[in-house]
Amino acid sequence: MAEATTGLPARAPGLARRAAAGAWQVPAGFAFLLWRPGLWPLAVLPVLSAVLLMIAGAVAGIYLVPGVESVFAPTPGRAPEWLELPVSLLLWTAAVGGGIFLGLGVALLLTAPLLDLLSRRVESRVRGSAADAGHGLRFELLQSLRGALYFLVAAPGVFLLGLIPLVGPLLSAVWGARAVAFQMTDPALTRRGLTFADKRRWHRRWLAESVGFGLAGMVGLLVPLANLLLGPALVTGGTLLVLDLEEIASDAAGPGEPGGLGGREPPGDEDRGRPLEPTA
Fold it and tell me: Following DSSP, what letter does each residue of 177-208 receive, concatenated?
């Protein structure tokens, strides 16, 4: 028997509210997973892998800090004292944060088949069955690998952007958020037959929800205990996000019009209060 969906209110055209609705799916993913013990066996290995590799990434980042400081930090005595401490903190944050992000990416790559199965189970519990575009196992494996590699490639970008003074942490968070949203929705979108290019277009169409979800996921990296469940919980939340947006697109389609995941760009202020209208 299919379970009820997340129960979010209809999506408003305002960017802030749409981003908040996307971010909501992160705690919703945690709650969905924690309240369903039947899903826990699929989460155990990804959780253990993420914990070990995130710790390893943090340790590697700590060991890299002296080398990073020697390259990017101002020479002692040549910069004002009030500047040295913030720069040092920035470099520590960038190195350790980048290492943790890279560790999570490796864990997601190694446990991708289990996370894909978890996503299928979540969708089956919500909808009664999981989508299947019929492209075959080879297609799904290739798309999953490509998405995981995209996440890994993003890790150096998260680190390097974090080194930029003032705006660096913000740019790093936004870039990391994009990678998180892309990776955590990958299983559900792959089952719908979307290629890598299709997924990029999907995230552009639902940009506010995608960024909101990704930023909330980045915040989850900083929350003690919650970050231990981050991989499985975010895959669960990403699946719920895809299902939620799919329903919005389908509801907005008129009789005889296709719904699904496609859609026009979100409406502007002149369309406030009207549902998002997918393309034919």
Answer: HHHHHHHHTHHHHHHTT--HHHHHHHHHHTHH
